[in-house]
Design brief:
The complex is a heterodimer of chains A (124) and B (322). Chain A is built from 5 helices and no strands. Chain A has 124 residues and is mostly helical. Chain A has a single domain, classed as HPT domain (Four Helix Bundle (Hemerythrin (Met), subunit A)). In chain A, helix 2 runs antiparallel to helix 5. Chain A is elongated. The termini of chain A are far apart. Helix content of chain B is 48%, strand content 18%. Chain B is built from 11 helices and 12 strands. In chain B, the strands form 3 sheets. Chain B has a 5-stranded parallel β-sheet, sandwiched between helices. The chains are: A mainly alpha (124), B alpha/beta (322).
Chain lengths: 124, 322
């Protein structure tokens, strides 16, 4: 399996691993999720625009940013999809970008509900 | 300890900030490489830095290269943060001047352990700098009075004379000798003699401006260099310096000791460009005249007095009656 391919054994969101990395600081975790909920849609929106206009440099930069964001948050599968998109943009594979973006959005679609569920759970 | 975090991604920034605050660091966060460089270039800026690799304005390796060109500044220990994983990329990051790298997603414990390595390196640097500065101080200062030693004050005088000639200003050279100092040593002992010299050094230093020089020229001889000193005011300034010693007794372990000083004074504007040794010879002659005139006074060296002085059979400084 290539490094940037999603590992299907991985959960969409590895909450336990993230909690360990932040010293079990649940308050910080909630803060991080809030930041993510604000930044992720904005960045993915910019990425969609870059991909549809064929802007390879910007597509590469934005997918790199998303990769870091997702890795930090414990979303390894979506991060791998972002990494794949970054690789394609760097390699100039303009035709493959749209498919890779769809794959990323698909993984994000699995991750976001888990984050929302956690936020709802801790709110109550 | 201060630490700089530079990352364009808010989530990563907040995670790092929290982990570092928890470890007791004083954290400053910025969003791009340009801001990072500005902070790291400040005189009291952070000496530890965590830089994201990919950033707007200037990337992490770019910041590293810019920081490393400032060789005169204190060392900054830099850890690059990267989600780039290949060996080539890591080598590139380290070659740019980073000390270490950390792969995202980082583990808080590993992050702190790597920063402790950085702190050890910085501590080592501090100790080396301190040792170097101590050696430099010892090589240029008198161990008793902490004034500049003879070699150092003469070097500075030579430099100052060049500068004042170039800028058409005047440097005042004062060579002072403590009157009857031998009596202090003979009657009160060398420990009190040393106390006296330390106090005189302190008074001379206190009576000049921060950019003037005071050095210990010999046993009880002191050289004072007044930079950019208006010749019209130089005699009055020299007189004030002389009085700073004579005005009040010096407190010693064996009671107060009243002492005076004699000074030879020379204003470089009165003379053309010449070697520093010749200036010192003439100011020494003027000091001898002050001694000859009864001590506790000053005499000013003049070019036209040189011929007259040279006819007198002068004792050399070492043979001068103190």
């Amino acid at each position: 399996m290539k490094k940037s391919e999603p590992d299907l054994q991985e959960p969409a969101w590895n909450q336990a691993e993230l909690l360990e990395r932040v010293d079990n600081d649940r308050e910080l975790l909630r803060e991080l999720l809030t930041i993510f909920k604000e930044d992720f849609p904005r960045t993915i929106c910019s990425l969609e625009a870059a991909v549809s206009s064929g802007d390879l440099k910007r597509s590469g930069l934005l997918s790199h940013t998303l990769k870091g964001m997702l890795l930090n948050l414990g979303g390894a599968r979506a991060a791998a999809a972002a990494a794949r998109l970054e690789e394609l943009a760097t390699a100039g594979e303009i035709a493959a970008l749209k498919g890779a973006l769809d794959a990323l959005e698909c993984e994000a679609g699995k991750l976001l509900p888990e984050l929302d569920a956690y936020m709802t759970e801790v709110r109550h | 300890m201060k630490i700089l975090v530079a990352d364009d991604e808010a989530l990563s920034r907040r995670m790092l900030e929290r982990a570092l605050e928890r470890a007791g660091y004083e954290v400053t966060c910025v969003e791009n490489g340009k801001q990072a460089l500005e902070h790291l270039c400040k005189p009291d800026g952070p000496r530890l830095a965590l830089l994201d690799w990919v950033m707007p304005e200037l990337d992490g390796p770019g910041v590293c290269r810019a920081v490393r060109t400032r060789s005169e500044h204190t060392y900054v220990y830099i850890v690059l943060l990267t989600s780039k994983g290949s060996k080539e990329e890591i080598v590139l990051g380290l070659e740019s001047g980073a000390d270490d790298y950390l792969t995202k997603p980082f583990n808080a414990e590993e992050l702190r352990a790597r920063l402790r390595v950085g702190e050890r390196i910085l501590l080592l640097e501090d100790r080396l700098v301190e040792a170097r500065e101590n050696m430099r101080f010892r090589a240029t200062h008198d161990p008793l009075t902490s004034l500049l030693n003879r070699g150092a004050v003469m070097d500075l005088l030579a430099r100052e004379l060049h500068r004042s000639y170039r800028e058409q200003k005047s440097t005042a050279i004062l060579l002072g000798d403590v009157d009857h100092f031998k009596r202090v040593n003979d009657t009160l002992g060398h420990v009190v003699g040393d106390e006296v010299l330390v106090e005189i050094a302190s008074r001379l230093l206190a009576s000049v401006r921060s950019y003037d020089f005071v050095g210990r020229y010999g046993g009880e001889e002191f050289l004072v260099v007044l930079n950019s000193c208006d010749p019209a005011f130089a005699p009055a300034r020299a007189e004030a310096i002389r009085k700073s010693v004579a005005n009040r007794p010096i407190q010693t372990a064996k009671g107060p000791v009243s002492l005076t000083m004699s000074f030879g004074v020379l204003l470089s504007a009165d003379w053309g460009p010449r070697p520093v040794e010749e200036f010192l010879h003439d100011v020494d002659t003027a000091l001898y005249r002050a001694k000859d005139a009864g001590r506790d006074c000053l005499r000013i060296a003049k070019p036209d007095a040189k011929a007259e002085a040279s006819h007198v059979s002068l004792p050399q400084p070492a043979r001068r009656a103190h």
